């Protein structure tokens, strides 16, 4: 095997577009450049360059008016260290020319590529720039920049432009606008005679045009420019002679006829398309589109039909409109040959004389329709999903404007049918990746939006993981796509086996996987899972032929609501973190780190809101039941704080509690939670006769307060709650050395009659001697271990050992995070006394928890009444 080419030099990629960044990184990384760096935006790029790395080329985007990008180029040129670094600009396909005077490029820009970027073009441009830089030819670079500025203007033009050879009249090149509007690809055009694109001019007329061009250097004329679908469009053409890179060419520019875009008909058509795009979904949205068609074309008949030719069933009308009532003896439109032709994929386009052209159709003959338009509704695979039929008794000006607008409307309706079809086929089929069986991108995005809505309502914290296989492209290229598919299937199984059933794992695109980890209490929980995935991925994969393959993954992590509160930014931040992991050498995970200034401003704003939250009545206490393992009856509840902001919604305690601990607000907030929980527990005791134990968390800051014991005693005295019904939870990670008199404080709380529980057990670094001396009555096993029961034998062993140790020390055990029956069966078999988790109940507001107790009371009373009757 030949050695892979080594490319001297390092490249910095600066783009906010994830797809472009992915193509750029994978393409350049696969070519063994010395280093390939990525930056998500210009500030990050500048911060990176300040570290004085060795950068040979910068590939960066120019979006919108590109002022920041131009300023960035100017700043590079003003820095003696970076002035030599050439820049390759990325411009979006729809970049308006008016934003820029492209007659000269910004300082330092020596080349252009278009977005979405093409891998082969990227590599050619980067290598070309590096080669010119190595040659040291400033003049060559300047000439290349001049040529490339022309190329950019050619590609970026909103006009249709075709280059042709003056000698034989064949097409040399065509720009993207021509491709999009004509329907012809470059490959179809290059080498074809330019004459074939104009259906409205014969050879004699063409010869006369060429004579005028040779005499005057340019010529203008009206043409009928062919379209790829067989039609033609009236356009103004302007042909002139030009010199490109020392070569004489004919440049033909096609434009809409003067004033056409300002005409009322064009404005009406654009308004129609815009209104149809904004119409809703479902039957109401379809009815709205049909009404738009009625108002625009004034038809006598409109019918939208859904069909399933692959299932051999009759077409079904989704919406039908008749100007007048339908006579009883009228033929059935669903059984006529014209509809069949359209459902077979053929367009029927008759602006007039339709009754003669379609004489074999009894329905059209019956109503004497003079104009009939029938368009197939196709999905992205060009399969016909249905048909749109429009008919009038009067002729219809079915020119390019009308037909192109109707085709756009048909595409809008086809999308609605495709969405319906996906729903009807079922989520398991329509929203599932065919190779791995995982949820696909569409279903993942839907689940992420749903999770965000639930978290906004409940205050839950969750995380998004972006998992990307390292150097997967080389596996496909060297071993084939069959092996690549084996790898993807195996990776899907490993990821699915690394998380709980309540979490989501999806194949997002190619070798990219995304995950949603729900019900996160601490960020460290996610860190452990991410580390576990990295280790699982390192295990050699045995292929079907018996050979072994080593694969690794880079993982990016973002958190809701800490990093973002909407789906797009959560994914974007996880993606940025994933590229950070690749930059750290791959085979690791990284969490998203916000720009320091942005993070600081967010914290200041949140702290200001938190200071008035208690006074404004925005804080809530939720209660999650704890049940006795043997009977599954409620034995107590844990008090959990929530913050319901009037504008931000429910804010996760994982977000604001650390902030409250930093600024000392946790003292007053903690005391408020304690008094509220004691008062609620006492009220329910009196109302339902239940001695429910309530658990309240104590933070390290509270434990440092000399008055803590007095505060607890006061809360018990004021509410009348018995001290034995109050559990005070302390996390295992709290260090005795850092909190003066901690053990003494806890013992004094026990002397009041309160119980002490060690929370999140298993996540800290406690020694057995420390646990033995700690004055605790209960140990709460952290949910990180409980949720992996049935998944990870190591975590099962930890749970089993914790229960045994606690019992040997005379402490009871509460298991958190019990979510499925398998967890319950295991913990019951191991002798765990109490359980807490979503299998029994999620955290509830006080009113909902009271309703739960009322329902329990009703069930018990009914059972007692039934027993008495027997």
What structural keywords apply?
single chain, 870 residues, alpha/beta, 5-stranded parallel β-sheet, 31 helices, 32 strands, globular, disordered N terminus
Compose a concise summary of this entry.
This protein is α/β, with parallel strands linked by helices and 870 residues long.
What can you see in these coordinates?
By secondary structure, the protein is an alpha/beta fold. Helices cover 44% and strands 23% of the residues. The strands form 6 sheets. It has an 8-stranded mixed beta barrel with strand order 23-24-26-27-28-29-30-31. It has a 5-stranded parallel β-sheet with strand order 2-1-3-4-5, sandwiched between helices. It has a 5-stranded antiparallel β-sheet with strand order 7-6-10-9-8, with helices on both faces. A hairpin with a 6-residue loop joins strand 6 and strand 7. Helix 9 packs antiparallel against helix 10 and helix 23 packs parallel to helix 25. It is globular, with a radius of gyration of 35 Å. The chain starts with 6 loop residues before the first strand and ends with a helix.
């Amino acid at each position: 095997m030949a050695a892979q080419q080594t490319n001297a030099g390092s490249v910095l990629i600066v783009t906010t577009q994830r797809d472009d960044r992915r193509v750029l990184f994978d393409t350049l990384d696969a070519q063994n450049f010395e280093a390939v760096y990525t930056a998500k935006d210009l500030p990050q790029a500048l911060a990176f360059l300040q570290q004085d790395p060795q950068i040979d080329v910068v590939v960066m985007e120019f979006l919108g008016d590109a002022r920041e990008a131009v300023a960035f180029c100017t700043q590079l040129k003003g820095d003696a260290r970076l002035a030599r670094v050439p820049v390759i600009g990325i411009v979006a396909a729809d970049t308006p020319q008016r934003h820029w005077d492209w007659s000269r490029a910004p300082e330092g820009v020596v080349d252009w590529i278009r977005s979405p970027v093409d891998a082969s073009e990227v590599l050619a441009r980067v290598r070309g720039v590096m080669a010119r830089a190595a040659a040291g030819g400033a003049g060559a670079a300047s000439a290349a920049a001049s040529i490339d500025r022309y190329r950019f203007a050619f590609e970026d033009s909103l006009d249709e432009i075709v280059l042709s050879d003056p000698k034989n009249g064949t097409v040399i090149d065509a720009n993207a606008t021509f491709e999009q509007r004509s329907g012809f690809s470059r490959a179809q055009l290059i080498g074809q005679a330019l004459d074939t694109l104009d259906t409205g001019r014969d050879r004699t007329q063409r010869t006369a045009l060429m004579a005028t061009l040779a005499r005057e250097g340019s010529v203008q004329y009206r043409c009928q420019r062919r379209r790829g679908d067989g039609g033609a469009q009236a356009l103004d053409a302007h042909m002139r002679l030009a010199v490109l890179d020392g070569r004489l060419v004919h440049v033909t520019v096609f434009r809409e006829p003067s004033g056409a875009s300002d005409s009322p008909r064009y404005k009406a058509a654009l308004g129609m398309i815009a209104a149809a795009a904004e119409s809703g979904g479902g039957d109401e949205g379809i009815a709205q589109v049909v009404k738009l068609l009625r108002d625009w074309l004034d038809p006598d008949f409109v019918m939208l039909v859904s069909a399933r030719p692959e299932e051999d069933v009759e077409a079904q009308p989704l919406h039908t409109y008749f100007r007048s009532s339908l006579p009883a003896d009228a033929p059935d439109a669903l059984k006529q040959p014209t509809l069949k032709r359209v459902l077979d994929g053929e367009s029927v386009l008759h602006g007039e004389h339709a009754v003669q052209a379609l004489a074999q159709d009894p329905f059209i003959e019956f109503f004497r329709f003079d104009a009939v338009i029938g368009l197939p509704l196709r999905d992205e695979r060009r399969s016909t999903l249905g048909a749109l039929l429009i008919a009038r008794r009067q002729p219809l000006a079915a020119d390019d404007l009308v037909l192109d607008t109707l085709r756009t409307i048909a595409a809008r309706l086809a999308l609605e049918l495709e969405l319906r079809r996906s729903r009807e086929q079922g989520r398991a089929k329509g929203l599932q990746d065919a190779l791995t069986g995982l949820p696909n991108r569409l279903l993942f995005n839907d689940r992420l939006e749903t999770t965000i809505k639930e978290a906004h309502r409940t205050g839950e914290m969750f995380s998004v993981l972006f998992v990307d296989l390292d150097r997967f492209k080389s596996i496909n290229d060297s071993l084939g796509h069959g092996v690549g598919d084996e790898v993807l299937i195996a990776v899907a199984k490993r990821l699915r086996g690394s998380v709980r059933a309540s979490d989501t794992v999806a194949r997002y695109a190619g070798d990219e996987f995304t995950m949603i980890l729900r019900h996160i209490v601490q960020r460290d929980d996610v860190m452990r899972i991410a580390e576990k995935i990295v280790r699982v991925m390192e295990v050699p994969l045995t292929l079907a032929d018996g050979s072994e393959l080593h694969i690794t993954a880079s993982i990016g992590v973002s958190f809701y609501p800490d990093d973002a509160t909407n789906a797009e930014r959560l994914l974007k931040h996880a993606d940025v973190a994933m590229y950070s992991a690749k930059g750290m050498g791959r085979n690791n995970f990284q969490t998203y780190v916000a720009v320091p200034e942005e993070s600081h401003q967010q914290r200041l704003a949140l702290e200001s809101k938190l200071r008035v939250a208690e006074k404004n009545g925005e804080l809530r206490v939720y209660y999650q039941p704890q049940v006795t393992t043997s009977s599954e009856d409620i034995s107590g509840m844990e008090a959990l704080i929530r913050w319901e902001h009037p504008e931000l919604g429910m804010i996760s305690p994982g977000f604001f509690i650390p902030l409250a601990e930093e600024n000392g607000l946790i003292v007053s907030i903690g005391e408020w939670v304690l008094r509220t929980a004691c008062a609620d527990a006492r009220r329910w005791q009196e109302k339902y006769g239940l001695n429910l134990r309530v658990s309240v968390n104590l933070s390290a800051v509270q434990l440092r307060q000399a008055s803590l014991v007095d505060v607890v005693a006061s809360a018990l005295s004021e509410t009348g709650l018995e001290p034995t019904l109050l559990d005070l939870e302390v996390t295992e990670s709290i260090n005795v050395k850092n909190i003066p008199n901690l053990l003494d404080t806890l013992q004094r709380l026990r002397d009041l009659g309160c119980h002490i529980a060690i929370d999140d057990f298993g996540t800290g670094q406690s020694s057995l001697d420390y646990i033995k001396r700690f004055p605790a009555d209960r140990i709460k096993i952290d949910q990180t271990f409980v949720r992996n029961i049935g998944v990870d034998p190591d975590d099962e062993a930890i749970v089993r050992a914790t229960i045994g140790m606690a019992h040997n020390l005379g402490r009871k055990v509460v298991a958190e995070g019990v979510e499925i029956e398998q967890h319950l069966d295991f913990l019951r078999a191991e002798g765990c006394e109490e359980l807490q988790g979503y299998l029994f109940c999620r955290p509830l507001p006080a009113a909902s928890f009271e309703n739960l107790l009322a329902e329990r009371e009703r069930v018990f009373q009914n059972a007692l009444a039934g027993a008495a009757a027997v």
